[in-house]
Every structure is written in C-alpha cells, then in structure tokens.
Amino acid sequence: MTIYLHKHDLPDNINFDDTVAVDTETQGLNPHRDRLCVVQLSSGDGNAHLVQLTANDYDGATNLKALMTNPDVTKIFHFARFDVAIMKKYLGIDITPIFCTKIASKLVRTYTDRHGLKDLTRELLNIDMDKRQQSSDWAAVELSQAQQEYAASDVYNLHAMKDRLTEMLIREDRMDVAQRCFDFLPTRADLDLMGWSDNDIFAHK
Hints:
Elements: E1 2-7, E2 19-26, E3 36-42, E4 47-52, H1 62-68, E5 74-77, H2 80-91, E6 98-100, H3 101-108, H4 117-125, H5 145-156, H6 158-171, H7 175-194
Parallel strand pairs: 1-4, 2-5, 5-6
Antiparallel strand pairs: 2-3, 3-4
C-alpha cells in the first residue's frame, strides 16, 4: 500500500478507471463552519491519493473537480450525504454518479443498527480499522504520517465493500431502490446546505 500526498490538486498524470473510492477530512461536521481540508481517493489497487487543500485552493483544483463530476466514473463513498455536501459547498460541484456504502448497508443489513465504516469493514471484509486519528487537525500545514495512514485507510477497502454490498442488494431485490437513493444524494446535499438538515420535509409535521 502506497500513499501519495498531493497539495492543491491532483496531478495531471493520475488516471482512475470507471470507479473511484472517495472520502473527505474536514475541520468538523458543520459544512457552513468547518472547511474542507483533504480529499482522499483510491482506485482499489491498494494505493491512495490524498489531495490537501488550503482555503485558497477551492477555485482551482481543476483535475479533482473534473474527476468528481465525470459522468463515466462512479464515486464510492461511505455516508456520501456529507462528502457530497462539503464538496458542493467548497468546490462548487455536483457529484454524480454515486454509490454510498452506508445507504446500501442500511438497506440490506437490517439485522443490525451498526452501519459505521469500522463496523462494516470488520463484518464484511474481516479487517479492523484504527480510527484514532479521526479527530485531529486536518488543516495542519503538514499532515503527520499517522494522519495520512488514517485518511488512506478510509478509501482502501471501499471497492471490495461495494462489491459485497451489491451482491447483498441484488440478493434482497433492493438494488433498484438503492440506486434511486444514490441518485437523490445531490438533492439531499442541497437541502442540507439550504438549512433542511434535520427537518424531514416528507414528514407530516
């Protein structure tokens, strides 16, 4: 496993196939307050590319934006709702197409309420993740080796997890409804950014 750290944008010579695993690191979980700091990507080959972004990079990062908006490349996220919203807020992009492992898990792993990335990775892939760096200063000028390894670990296994969850969705005849949920995610992110993060507009009251 190799980690490549890039500052400001993806290099021109980095190519991904038709599927890329994606995650983000931010200063917190409020997209209006907490800025986007790192975007990590993997093509499922055991390597990870970390794009470290400063507040001055958002208007650029053209290679990263092109990849995220490429209609021929499926982006795999875990809890895509947040990542799609934070990148919409700071990079000004709408991300499609999407596969969200958390949504897929909730649709087929109805025997549990544990749908976190660590729980999924342990059950489906028999891999234990180290989450100790989850709460750390992702806006630091230089990321520590531990931070880089943590960020990379969030995308290393998403391809294998997508494959396993897809098998389960097909088995339970829920692939179609999953796809419709994935397709709705950019709209769900828009609602979050507009202030309807906790309000269920589909609820009676």
